[in-house]
Structure formats: structure tokens, C-alpha cells
Amino acid sequence: MVSSPHEAMHRIFQEYPGLFSGVSEVLGIDFPPPTSVTVLPNDLTETSPVERRVDTLLRLESEEGEPLLLAVEAQGGKDPHKPASWAYYASYLLTKYRLQPLLLVVCQDRSTAEWAAREVSFGPRQWPLLTLRPLVAGPHNMPVITKPAEVRKDLALATLSAITHATHPDAGVILKSMTTVLRDTPQNIADPIIELIAQGLGKHPAAQLWRKLVAVDLSFYKSYLSEEIRDEGRAEGEARRAAEDVLAILDVRGIDVPEADRERITGCGDPEILRHWHRRAVTAPTAEDIFEDE
């Protein structure tokens, strides 16, 4: 199953095709900046029933030399079968487009990144036929951008950096620098970045931090994520107030509320259930009795 981080790590190159220039510069590889970029179909399926799809495929053109085919793969873990697939992609792209292919693998953990960066040879040991050498971007070589001034220099690179450093100890500082800049960024530019980072952080703890920062620092944005966060906040506030009302009635009636029952009431996030408990709290002889129908 394709995960949200997987989608974000390659889709960002579709949203910001010029990002590869910043990434290649960080990786120390000299590629001229593209003068035009074309997003190509990612379906590499042949007439046989085997389906093969590269995550993102871009045609990069520059003032120097021939166009370049950039295949971007988001890799979430080590897969011993992947290098053979990547070699197939390269061979197929060269055959189909007659342009030189390049593979960029984007990872979120150092172990996977180091695995992906290995040279892999195909063919007999005595005479290898092919050698696969992917470029790899991950937490081991992407810059840790914690200053708003650095974010402003290249928003796309800063976004990719935030995604690849999802588990970095300074993730909070990294994400805060993003919201600081996005506050002053036009909404049509900021919204895709907000969504990409939310998608890229997946289920990492930093994802919840990002949601809180968006809710507080970017509360005026109307993106899908910000609306979802505000809806969640309203629901949480309603449930909290309903739980307080249940406890208030029991307190006024002088009914003791054991700690376990109190935690059950305050831990309930369903306003409808809390309203039911609220009605029962008016007449229930004990706190436990309000749960009788549950």
C-alpha cells in the first residue's frame, strides 16, 4: 500500500520541478538548471501483464546538452527486489525515449538511504553487465534548515528537507521555521506546501506537531488540512465542555466520582455519548450508574 510519506517524497518534484536543481547542488553533482520541465507518464508497463510504474518521471531540459530523464522514487524501507526494478526502469526509459535516464531515490531514514545509495552490479561476477548508481536524498545529506531566512531562499528544498528529517531531534525547530515563513507567503503557494509536509510526515510524531503549528501559526489559511484541524479542535472543545458539565452535575448533587470514572468521562471524545451521560447524571444514584446502558 502506498503511504502518504511515499507520495509526498516524489510528488514534490511534480509540484516544484525545479527542485532537482537545489537537490543536485546539495548532493554535489553538477547539473545545469533546467530551462523547461515536462512531467511525463509514469506508466512503464509493457504488453505483458507485469505492471511497472516509476513514482515520478520528469523530462528536464537545459541550455547545456541534451534533455535528461529524471525518475524519482520514494523508498520507505529496504527491498532486495528494488534494484532490479530500478535497473529495468533505466533500461526501459533509455529504450523508449532515447534520452539518458537518472534515478533519484528519496528516503526518510539513514539506513534505507545508505542501502539505496550502494552500487549494484548485474551479471556474472567475472564480467558485470550493468551497474546501478542511484542518486539518494535523505536525512544523511539533506540540509537541516532551522532558520526562516534559509527557508525563504528555497521553499521547495526546505519542504523536502522537512519531510526527509521527519524523525530529526530538531523537527520542532525545522517545522516552526516553515510556518514562520508560510505566514508571509501567498496562500496559493503556501497551501500545497502545508499539505505536502502533512502528507510527508505520515504517522511520525512530528505530524501532530505540524498540525498544531498549522492550527496556531497558520490559522487564517483555508487549506484542507487547516480546515480539518479546526474541525477537530471544535469537536475536542465540545467534548471537553460536555465532560465538564457531566462532572459538574455530579459534584452539585454531592456524588463521589472515583478516579477511574472521572478518567472515563474526561477521556470520552464523543459529544453524543457525553450528552447521554449528562442526562443520566441528573438522577443516577452513583457515578458508575451513568454508564449503565453502555
UniProtKB/TrEMBL annotation:
Q: Which domain of life is it from?
A: Bacteria
Q: Specify the protein name.
A: Transposase
Organism of origin is Streptomyces pratens
